[in-house]
Amino acid sequence: MVTNLFGCDFFCAFFGADLRGGDEMLMAHDANQQAINATVAHRKTGYHCPGCQAPVQLKRGTVMTPHFAHQRDQACQTFSEGETAEHLLGKQQLAAWFLASGYKVQLEAPLTAIHQRPDLLVQLPGQKPLAIEFQCSPLAVPRLKARTLGYRQHGYRVLWVLGTPYQQARLRPTSKALKFLQYNQQWGCYLAFWDVQQVALCLRFNLLGFDGDPLQSQRQLFWSQRQPVDQLMTYRPTLLVPQIVAEQFQRRQRRLVIGRLTRQPRFMALQTLCYQHGGTLATLPLWVYPMQAKLPILTTAFLAWQVQLFIALRKQPVQVWSLLALRQLIWQTLQPCLAPMSCIETPRHLCQHLIQTCLNELMTKQVIRPVAGGWRVVQRQLAWR
């Protein structure tokens, strides 16, 4: 258990102080191999790093979060990223919140079987342990995927919580926070952010993307000093279905024209593709333009995927399709457009959701019609306008 000595209001006074340069940690081992929190450590006692076993120095004062640090010339693979004051403070605040909510809490717990050390490892009796990573520094997608997979393969749940560098008032499809996209049935696609100044978790959920616009989402704030963790874990909101209005469609059309005129690379690539198949972006059938916000799991615009589907349908001699064959064709055009889903445990579920949404739109817009033996593609819907 972690000693509840975190004093969150006091720590907020030095949010923003940069501690980069050494390898910092909140826990270190004493001479008896006991894990000691920096908040209760003694200056005259010797401590060493739980990872590399090198001596570490206790740093505690009125202008910094208590922590241990390596010497600047020491290299440590376990604590190699360096930590900001925000990271150190946020871990303390999160630990205090979970501890006050009845969880068993371990800071920087060494998981020797997978050679990983989450910022927090928390657990309630009868539940799987939850590894919490408070991410404030850059992290490459392969490393993110490996760490997440490592936890799950060894029976740990995992929650990525993001700090200030990833926080934006308006998330866009290109936002760097999206590589941490997570999903569950109750919240849809979501991101979790920790605010060390408010000592609160901001949940941005039901994230949906629409070409050219900031992501649509709902949000809920959880104040750690007033609300227990259970209010987060049992939160079951009503997921709103966004309505697309005509004005949004008109704005998107204008963006396409501007894109062609200013030779934006992504639109010019689509324009070239259309030229190669006998048309232009302006002469695409209207059903190709997305009219509904979708799960933000593509690396391209949704229009780029829809153009690929339109061209694939035009190239097929098949007149009547089985539902399975249609799904397979949609998947073939979708797969190259998918973004890495490093933090999502069931990416196949989200892909199937997109495929079904696409099928529903094809039916609604009468691109396909039911006939005996399957579905017939309406040929006039495959003609350039």
UniProtKB/TrEMBL annotation:
Pfam families: CoiA_N, CoiA_nuc. Residues 83-234 form the Competence protein CoiA nuclease-like domain. Transmembrane segments: none annotated. Residues 41-78 form the Competence protein CoiA-like N-terminal domain. This is Competence protein CoiA. It comes from Lactiplantibacillus daowaiensis. The lineage of its organism: Bacteria, Bacillati, Bacillota, Bacilli, Lactobacillales.
